[in-house]
Amino acid sequence: xxxxxxxxxxxxxxxxxxxxxxxxxxxxxxxxxxxxxxxxxxxxxxxxxxxxxxxxxxxxxxxxxxxxxxxxxxxxxxxxxxxxxxxxxxxxxxxxxxxxxxxxxxxxxxxxxxxxxxxxxxxxxxxxxxxxxxxxxxxxxxxxxxxxxxxxxxxxxxxxxxxxxxxxxxxxxxxxxxxxxxxxxxxxxxxxxxxxxxxxxxxxxxxxxxxxxxxxxxxxxxxxxxxxxxxxxxxxxxxxxxxxxxxxxxxxxxxxxxxxxxxxxxxxxxxxxxxxxxxxxxxxxxxxxxxxxxxxxxxxxxxxxxxxxxx
Amino acid sequence: xxxxxxxxxxxxxxxxxxxxxxxxxxxxxxxxxxxxxxxxxxxxxxxxxxxxxxxxxxxxxxxxxxxxxxxxxxxxxxxxxxxxxxxxxxxxxxxxxxxxxxxxxxxxxxxxxxxxxxxxxxxxxxxxxxxxxxxxxxxxxxxxxxxxxxxxxxxxxxxxxxxxxxxxxxxxxxxxxxxxxxxxxxxxxxxxxxxxxxxxxxxxxxxxxxxxxxxxxxxxxxxxxxxxxxxxxxxxxxxxxxxxxxxxxxxxxxxxxxxxxxxxxxxxxxxxxxxxxxxxxxxxxxxxxxxxxxxxxxxxxxxxxxxxxxx
Lengths: 311, 311
Description:
The structure is a homodimer of 311-residue chains.
Chain A: E1 4-8, H1 12-24, H2 29-42, E2 63-69, E3 75-81, H3 87-95, E4 102-104, H4 106-114, H5 125-140, E5 152-157, E6 163-169, E7 190-193, E8 197-203, H6 205-208, H7 213-222, H8 227-244, E9 252-257, E10 263-267, E11 271-277, E12 283-288, E13 295-298, H9 301-307
Parallel strand pairs in A: 3-4
Antiparallel strand pairs in A: 1-5, 1-11, 2-3, 2-6, 5-6, 7-8, 8-9, 9-10, 11-12, 12-13
Helix pairs in contact in A: 1-2, 2-3, 7-8
């Protein structure tokens, strides 16, 4: 059996590299997924996930995360959660509860606290400064405040053919208190069935939740389509439908992986992602939208240096 | 053009009857849906929706609701919300925002408060007494606390062919603080496309969220299946899949409606629902599971008298 992982954005590589080492040692897709996403959550350089994520309009970091097991369909998720150091680890624990698997707001923090998970102030000095500057700018001009909303979403496949999917994000910069996007929402933000494959989304949650495109992608893979074909058939017609309604669809990006290691992406914006298979290294790619056939190239050293500048 | 509404459980009739009068007067599917669901939210006799809903483990009523427009795919939803008199009206207002369409926890109440929606203590004396009794019983024995979880979910069709869907619930009795089920989750709890039809779910949210069956039902209707056929093809195979995994699937019930007025239901438990079409009266039906072909009969006067006893 093959092993593989795919994840959204350049940041995914930070987590996939140590997680693939675990998969090679025979660890489960559940362990690898949590290792990978937790590494991204812990890294304050990434300002849309976990520690160092950009805060909401009130200056508070609120996180959303989800975990799904493709063998059992068990789901755990949290949304609008504060002070949880590792949202993905809490989501996985929630997936193992007999009920109360999706917790929002103070109840999510209460669960994490009473179940021994580390709590942490997720606001960094850097993020607090950006919030203060943005606030001043928004007061001075009449700007659309919603910039960053890059979710890390990953699909993992272990040597036993077990698949998992997970997402984690601090959501829209300057969002309203309690605002939630697609990341904790099954079907829209993620879906996985170990017998077929998995998919995860990133982009403007308010648009991504208008259709269950991760669920549909997995269904289409179940009908025999490759990961790329399934994403193409699910994602682009819906974006076109929104455009035809005059809705100016915002960012949509997806990754998908099958149990054979076949992978694909779909996007309507420039989109980086990371893939690792078997004993190969983690490769970061850059996709450029081109109708429904994105151009995909390995990133260059120059691109990576620019992306990682200021680290 | 025809007009029609369908809604989950006997309680739906309380709202559909006044809402159908509005549809007959030419009002929109949006107005009718809010009228219908708000009538159920206002009625303290129904203990799983709105005012009089049963509280969480901490003794607090927390509500979830969603509104979706089938012409535009705009969605508004709230989850784990306290003190909001009419969750469905707030969900509709959220669907009209350019972003921040799904709000959870204190942020949802803040939005309702700052946008002039009435606030209300949703706990009735009757519900508080039931909570106290249940708490005592749970302390005395080791019982599964999760009884009531009946969401009101409705689909509306107006004379212009415009369709909407909405859900509202106080969720599981004795749920954890912040617990959310499928009701505010698009695809799992509800979906509508005015060109195809709409669907809504009720049952054990933790299981219903394991697949986007409302989304899939609408897709299947788009492939030419009737509402009944689409529900049959989407719902029962997934329940069978969970059963094959040894998961003892809990309650699944769905209603669906097409723009021609064709309707259907699927359920694995005894399930009442209400339907109204054109100028006919609202009919309450009782469905009894029978494989994937539920037996559907109009309710008897005796059944209704028993259901409404104690009002």
